[in-house]
Amino acid sequence: MSQVKKTTIILFSGDYDKAMAAYIIANGAAAYDHEVTIFHTFWGLNALRKDEQVEPPRKKGFMERMFARMMPRGADKMGLSKMNFAGMGPKMIKDVIRKHNAVPLPQLIEMAQEQDVKLVACTMTMDLLGLQKEELLEGIEYAGVAAYLGDAQDGNVNLFI
Amino acid sequence: MSQVKKTTIILFSGDYDKAMAAYIIANGAAAYDHEVTIFHTFWGLNALRKDEQVEPPRKKGFMERMFARMMPRGADKMGLSKMNFAGMGPKMIKDVIRKHNAVPLPQLIEMAQEQDVKLVACTMTMDLLGLQKEELLEGIEYAGVAAYLGDAQDGNVNLFI
Amino acid sequence: MSQVKKTTIILFSGDYDKAMAAYIIANGAAAYDHEVTIFHTFWGLNALRKDEQVEPPRKKGFMERMFARMMPRGADKMGLSKMNFAGMGPKMIKDVIRKHNAVPLPQLIEMAQEQDVKLVACTMTMDLLGLQKEELLEGIEYAGVAAYLGDAQDGNVNLFI
């Protein structure tokens, strides 16, 4: 049993503010030498989508195209959990972030990758929503709930966001 | 101090997708021989309601009848946390689940019971919302926050969903 | 490594019901001699706002005034995560709480302070939303994510609400 501290976060939410919280905690924990994993499942998977339109190799069915169109393409397009105001809320938050020299979500994700935070896409969700590897960011891993539990059971900072 | 790994989940949410996530994690952990508890509180209690109408032995007051009518009766009636579309979202998700041979929520709950996942109904919430034992699934336990803490403090995969 | 059990809760949500759950768990854990911390971040910070209007010493900018006006001033003004019904939901819940001799949120917060639960306001969020110390309850602490991790990594009941 290693002495390395572990932090694992399940990012279930597709909200910009909740994803920010997840990545701020993850980056903080990585800075304190924790081994950190963010397991992206359900709507949280959207944080890992590339922001450009990608023609996936396998043709999508009707439902898959609908999900693809309705869900935000990448971290920068996500809405807020509160005060979304039909899309105005995220702009307000981003203005405030810029004004205070805080770090917006896409850069928090880059920082996490630079700090070797393990970003995992839930393969079950990818299957359900019809998302393919080519549509997601480079340098991430693919796994299921068993791999998540393997990481989580050895750590004690385990959060569901 | 036993060596058995423990996973405890507080299911606060009454959303179909969040409850699915809770039960998928719980079933996974049970398959890896964790002792697993799901503590259903607030809206999460709705996942344990029977889907048929039950005439409870104690007559309900006005507020209790209102809660009973407005809250979903059982796992299959719950809405989504995102893209609910006035009730169309759950149907879409269930179609997708069926098409991919994934397991819908009511069966995930049955699987959990077969794997001896401890399903607990929060007695404080039952009292507040006026839910009686006869309205909830068979084979569950009844407890408060003290029992939850007793389970959680010996494990390290402790999630609030 | 001390033998004291620790419970840490990140209160991200600004919903009355979720904050109630957080404080019920915190008070329960404190009663069982856990060292308990609630780290209030993002919308969860609203639970710590004073309910009277405070003239903050540093003049607020436009966005800060907007946030201050739109966000609930204190625990008693927060909405529900479900069945908010344009503000009627909280009243219903509070009626039910009173009728059942349960404890409403503002008193749960007082109880937590009496039991030495450490209430922390996230300084990054205060900066982003323009909230100043004078606008928040007395007797709380101010810290960032590093302090949270310092508490969380020694405990095992770590929840994100």
Automatic annotation (TrEMBL), chains A, B, C:
It comes from the Bacteria. Pfam families: DrsE_2. The lineage of its organism: Bacteria, Bacillati, Bacillota, Bacilli, Bacillales. This is Sulfide reductase.
